[in-house]
Amino acid sequence: MKVALVADVHGNLTALEAVIADLERVQPDLVVHGGELVFNGPQPSECLDRIRELGWPGVLGNTDEAVARRLDEPAVSWAAERLGEERLAWLGRLPLGWRQADRIALVHATPDDLYRIVWPEADDAELEAIYGPLGAAVAVYCHIHRGYVRQIGKLTVANTGSVGLPDDGDPRASYLLVGEGRCTTGAWTTTWSGRSPACGRAAFQPSSTWLRST
Ligand SMILES: [Mn+2]
Most buried one in 9, 92, 172, 188, CB count within 10 A? Predict the structure, then answer.
């Protein structure tokens, strides 16, 4: 079973549509979103509606939570106004985690923190301490906008990268694909994949100072 994990859309509909087109080619059995769907791109409502229409299950991201509770910040207010009460309520109801039995577990940042940053350079012991307790063969997180896959003993830790605001030196949207692998060992092979066709970045990036380059 092939599962695509798609995250950090950040209101960038152009990038989201590029990923959806790529998924039509890849034909995963299931698509799950990893949160940060609406803030801080130009089309928050359009992105949210598209994901709801596709019926992807998913998890809450830090900015989803901030927008849902109308954090008093200009760019958050801008997005919240466009979304309206019904969409904000839907956002606020997103769960903190998603899992597929003991095979895949997904959280936005870490199991107990929506904001904590765990870089790809983290050592094995740190990754295992944070994501091992999820109890899944493949632990997936999002949030840092840099996709990677690491094997630590029997545990695979992977990051989805970002659809709308990639920060890994490649401006194209990215997502993670987890496929069924060596079934004799019960392990799942995780494939870093999903470079979608070229797409633009959101023009509206009021909070993108954390990006190393544009
Ligand atoms: Mn995040």
Answer: 9
Query: For 89-206, where are the E strands, in sequence order?
Result: 97-100, 104-107, 138-141, 148-152, 155-159, 175-179, 189-193
Q: Give me ligand 1 centre to Cα 116, in Å.
A: 9
Residue with tokens 């959806």: 20
Average pLDDT over all residues of the chain: 84
Q: Which domains can be identified in the chain, with CATH numbers? A: 3-193 (3.60.21.10)
What is the 146 CA–ligand 1 centroid distance (Å)?
Answer: 11
Give distance in angstroms: CA of 162 to centre of ligand 1.
10
Radius of gyration of the chain (CA): 16
Q: Cα(191) to centroid of ligand 1, in Å?
A: 22
Residues 153-193 pLDDT 10s: 999 899 998 998 888 877 778 888 887 653 222 223 333 34
